[in-house]
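Can anyone check this?
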Amino acid sequence: MHTYQSAPVETTVEAPTSEMRLLSKGKVFWNLTKVSINNQTPNVLVKLNPSSYSSKASDGGDKEEPPKQKLLRYPVLPLNDTLERFLLTAQPHLTPKEFEKQKEITQQFKDKEGDKLQGLLEEVGKREKNWLAQRWLTTAYLKYRDPVTVYISPGMTFPYQKFKDMRDYVDYTAKVIYGLGEFKGIVDAGQIPIVKMGKNELDNSQFGKVFGTCRIPIRGTDRIVYNPCSNYIVVIYKNHFYKLCLYDKDGCLLSAKSLAKQLDEIMAAENDFGVPYGILTTDNRDNWAEAYEQLAKTPENCEALNTIQKALFTVSLDQCIDVEPEQQATQLILGLIHGNGSKINSGNRWMDKTIQLVVNPNGNVGFTYEHSPAEGQPIAMMMDYVVKKMGEDKNYGSSGSSETGGKPQKISFAKPNPCVDQWIFYAKRNIDKLVHDLECNVLKFKCYGKDYIKKQKLGPDSFVQMALQLAFYKMHKVPGAQYESAHLRIFENGRTETIRSCSNESLAFCKAMTEGKASVKEKAALLREAVVGHQKYARLALQGLGVDRHLLGLKMMAQENGLPIPEFYSSPGYTKSMHFRVSTSQVATTYDAFMGYGPATDDGYAACYNPRDQDIIVAITSWSYNFETNPDKFAKALEAAFLEMQDVLDKDPQDNKPKSKL
């Protein structure tokens, strides 16, 4: 999300320094993208001075362009290097006999198809500054046919709120809307600071791709539309849609009081629930595409769809649901991920919008964001910015324009025909099944946080990754292929590379911790070696030197040139190491907030974590229909892993610095 790692460095930004270029498209995978890895890139919590941004809407007029960023070309790696690293990452998942066979298959691939495909990819790399960007967008997202709900779109929580009454609820929502408008002013002014990793600048273009952006369902392959110069938002209440102008006639951002007045008018206007058109957006992409075609047959619906798509973002004013205190965190993230079903709030959404602000009178607040155009950094930074501003100033939002901006306009759909009714029925059924199938446990581990880990001279991110490895091994008795995303922002339009967290070092550590033969000193040494091994691979991934994107590029060359897919891609080492049973991401914030999303495999988990100074928050999900996985048991195993690792380090505090093979 924002800068995902440990040691925050504050920087004051006075002047525009970054470029906000919009591309025709831009998107990523279901896994959340890690913007930085612990101890590789400083975690920058930026102080954006109020005097340095404009509260006016973009007018599209002439203005000084921010300086062009100096970004690297995305490389085509040497094939030998990639295959050597691949073998090391595949080895933990194979028996010695299987590994020998895998080495033969890999060598044959290199000698035969691999060299030819490498040559084709190198030619593409010469023509395109980032050969991966559009291919990744299309393959990982736009062609992906499962629902964006759960599978693609994560939820990002705000700290839990205790609303005194509905007045407090509306006023809070208005202030958050105001804050998002203010943040957009910072983006439009090019004042998101440029951060460097070593000597290399990190690409800031994704900040310009989230406001006014929407995914459009099309059978086979979706598309994305960008409307960054829009001047309104869409409010969804009881399944009704309203267009709410965010600026006055002079283009100045409306005050929170003016926004609250419009929210009051919307809520007063609706006593009954409307047709849940929004629930169509939660369905399988091809189902939604079919329904979309039916909806778009009438001019009234075309206008409604167009208005929603062009909004800067949507705001879902949800129906209050009672939540037991011990279930608050779990229900918070589930409400953001899927809306709790067709009879609760799943219809009060438009899942194709990149930014959806969701506010429930029960105090559950956060974002649901569609992952296609950008990684999570802009979304998480928005949350940090708004929460910080509201915490510092009780009168936050009062400096905006006192004009009304006009009355909110209802967005009307035509009466649904029998075909649309049928698609709504299917969407309700499917989202209810998805809600039933997804299980969640939010672990709030309070015994220690990243301060303790850093005192052990270990990287917090890598430490948590090894705890996840240990928890999985303790539960399932096998090493779990574990995905962690590393940003590629040193490259123009860079998205992510995979950090393969399961390694020979992590497996040795897990065996030592579970087999009862190793001494405390041996366990501590293996723990440190596993953490260092992960850090080294993470550094490689951040430099674009991982395994997965290069291998994907070679496979795409076969597909694009009508060549057969090599046997290598169905080999045990490749398929087992690519079956990511643990899908992870670090989304760091100092607030009591976190992100969550659905698992990548039927027999696996998603684990998104926020390591704070004194605690660690982990949102864990898995599927109820799989009897091997259980988020409650995994949370207990993870908590036990954290405690066992602490016990080992406390008993052997020596600063061992083993070298990793990676």
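Reply from J.R.: I decoded it. DSSP finds 17 helices and 20 strands in the chain.
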